[in-house]
Amino acid sequence: MSRLSTPIIIGTAAVIGLGAGALWSNVEGRQAQAQPAATMVSIAPRVFSLCHTGGGTNCVVDGDTVWVDSVKIRIADIDAPETHPPRCDQEAELGRRATGRLLQLVNAGPFEMRALNGREADLYGRKLRIFLRNGQSLGDQLVREGLARTWSGRREPWC
Hints:
The structure is a single chain. By secondary structure, the chain is α+β, with helices and mostly antiparallel strands. The protein has a domain of 106 residues: CATH 2.40.50.90. Strands 1, 2, 5, 6, 7, 8, 9, 11, 12 and 13 form a 10-stranded mixed sheet that branches. The chain has a two-stranded antiparallel ribbon with strand order 3-4. It has a two-stranded antiparallel sheet with strand order 10-14. Pfam families: SNase (PF00565). This is Endonuclease YncB(Thermonuclease family). Keywords: Endonuclease, Hydrolase, Nuclease. GO terms for molecular function: endonuclease activity.
């Protein structure tokens, strides 16, 4: 297996290919190509603001959606309460708190975004990424604080 480790600089983000080479094996008489390893993007410190809909440069939409350098990102490892529209007062309040906390987390310093293997974007065109700081998921931090839950593969009601 070949490994690509040459960094490519895009704006202020450094994209590093991790094991992007192909691995071929014989599966039931067919040739199959293995999935490339996840790609990490380092996000240098910047100022994020709040935004609710529409395009953004660097802003937090809600507890699991962020615009980073004009690209809409869905934090892939969590589900946060909806804020527009919330389905009940409890969801609205929890969603407001999750949004504010995510804003604090992304403004706290540099972090990395890791792509998922096998799925680039969701049904709404948002890029699917896991946000990490010092190897720890920012999504997991929201879960520990009771502001989100681990993504189970489908939405669950908050009301």
